[in-house]
């Protein structure tokens, strides 16, 4: 039998990792590179349900972080120190709007799980005090 | 005559166990609100409670085993042996990624369950204080 506190904690952990990828994407939204392969690609975590031997759900985990395959923008800026031989630079494929929405969603989900954690903690403490009044 | 906790506490002991289990199921739903393909689950409180109450009843009427050769007819009624069949929720707004968690519904159910858990604790607490008061002769 899973502990609700562990379940909430695993979800908070996963949401925090999602928030970290958002921060990393936002920070690199304007980085440029001299080659198409070197351009920053937005990173997204992949969530998966964790089950125990009895096929009971015991939490959530991040199984990996994938890079977006959206095309990277190519700009002609011959004066740029990182420009390639033809004068092109390649910027990241981060969509700032998407990342903002992602950030809010992660933050709300984190708050939900924090609430679950604190409510469960209160209930457990109350159960421990049973018959003491 | 002896004090029998099972009789004194009544259904509330089983109710507390089922409430705790439901708390866990709803917590996993909220935890997996963003997991692709996750199907929200819940337990039918009424059905599970009546099942576990029936299981508790049979154990009280179980035959005594006075010899090592006797075979116990009593069923296993420990908390982890509670019959908890989970049911899938019918989604109101199915999403593209196969996830059927409706966060607001889960939040409402979670709050409701927490409140009822506290009510059950309150009932159990008053049973205990009742017993205490009887033992102290009403003083």
TrEMBL record, chain A:
Record carries keyword Methyltransferase: no
Cited PROSITE patterns: FLAGELLA_BB_ROD (PS00588)
Domain called Flagellar basal-body/hook protein C-terminal: residue spans: 86-130
GO cellular component, one term: bacterial-type flagellum basal body, rod
Lineage top rank: taxon: Bacteria
A Pfam family recorded for this sequence: Flg_bbr_C
One Gene Ontology term from the biological process aspect of the record: bacterial-type flagellum-dependent swarming motility
Keyword terms of this UniProt record: Bacterial flagellum, Cell projection, Cilium, Flagellum
Compartment annotation: Bacterial flagellum basal body
Alphabetized InterPro entries for the sequence: Flag_bb_rod_N, Flagellar_basal_body_rod_CS, Flg_bb/hook_C_dom, FlgC
Residues in coiled coil: none
Domain Flagellar basal body rod protein N-terminal: 5-32
Entry similarity comment: Belongs to the flagella basal body rod proteins family.
Assembly and binders: The basal body constitutes a major portion of the flagellar organelle and consists of four rings (L,P,S, and M) mounted on a central rod. The rod consists of about 26 subunits of FlgG in the distal portion, and FlgB, FlgC and FlgF are thought to build up the proximal portion of the rod with about 6 subunits each.
Name of protein: Flagellar basal-body rod protein FlgC
Native source species: Zhongshania marina
Automatic annotation (TrEMBL), chain B:
A Gene Ontology BP annotation from the UniProt entry: bacterial-type flagellum-dependent swarming motility
GO CC annotation, single: bacterial-type flagellum basal body, rod
InterPro entries linked to this entry: Flag_bb_rod_N, Flagellar_basal_body_rod_CS, FlgB
Predominant cellular place of this UniProt entry's protein: other
The organism's place on the tree of life at top rank: Bacteria
Classification via Pfam families: Flg_bb_rod
Keyword annotations of the record: Bacterial flagellum, Cell projection, Cilium, Flagellum
Subcellular location: Bacterial flagellum basal body
Flagellar basal body rod protein N-terminal domain sequence ranges: 11-39
Coiled coil: none
Subunit structure: The basal body constitutes a major portion of the flagellar organelle and consists of a number of rings mounted on a central rod.
Protein's job: Structural component of flagellum, the bacterial motility apparatus. Part of the rod structure of flagellar basal body.
Family assignment from sequence similarity: Belongs to the flagella basal body rod proteins family.
Protein name per Swiss-Prot or TrEMBL: Flagellar basal body rod protein FlgB
Organism lineage string: Bacteria, Pseudomonadati, Pseudomonadota, Gammaproteobacteria, Cellvibrionales
């Amino acid at each position: 039998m899973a502990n609700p506190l562990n379940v909430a904690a695993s979800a908070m952990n996963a949401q925090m990792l999602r928030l970290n990828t958002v921060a990393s994407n936002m920070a690199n939204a304007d980085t440029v590179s001299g080659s198409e392969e070197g351009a920053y690609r937005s990173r997204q975590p992949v969530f998966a349900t964790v089950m125990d031997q009895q096929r009971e759900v015991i939490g959530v985990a991040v199984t990996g972080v994938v890079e977006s395959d959206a095309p990277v923008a190519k700009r002609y800026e011959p004066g740029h120190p990182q420009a390639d031989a033809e004068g092109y630079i390649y910027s990241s494929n981060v969509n700032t709007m998407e990342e903002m929405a992602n950030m809010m969603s992660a933050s709300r989900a984190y708050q939900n799980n924090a609430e679950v954690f604190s409510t469960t903690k209160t209930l457990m403490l109350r159960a421990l005090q049973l018959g003491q009044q | 005559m002896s004090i029998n906790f099972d009789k004194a506490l009544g259904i509330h002991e089983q109710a507390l166990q089922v409430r705790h289990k439901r708390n866990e199921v709803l917590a996993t739903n909220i935890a997996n609100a963003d997991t692709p393909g996750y199907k929200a689950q819940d337990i039918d409180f009424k059905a599970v409670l009546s099942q576990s109450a029936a299981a508790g009843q049979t154990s009280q009427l179980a035959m005594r085993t006075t010899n090592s050769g006797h075979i116990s007819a009593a069923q296993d009624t420990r908390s982890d042996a509670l019959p908890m069949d989970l049911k899938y929720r019918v989604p109101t707004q199915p999403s593209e990624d196969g996830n059927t968690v409706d966060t607001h519904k889960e939040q409402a159910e979670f709050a409701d369950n927490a409140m009822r858990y506290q009510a059950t604790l309150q009932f159990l607490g008053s049973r205990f204080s009742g017993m205490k008061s009887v033992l102290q002769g009403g003083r």
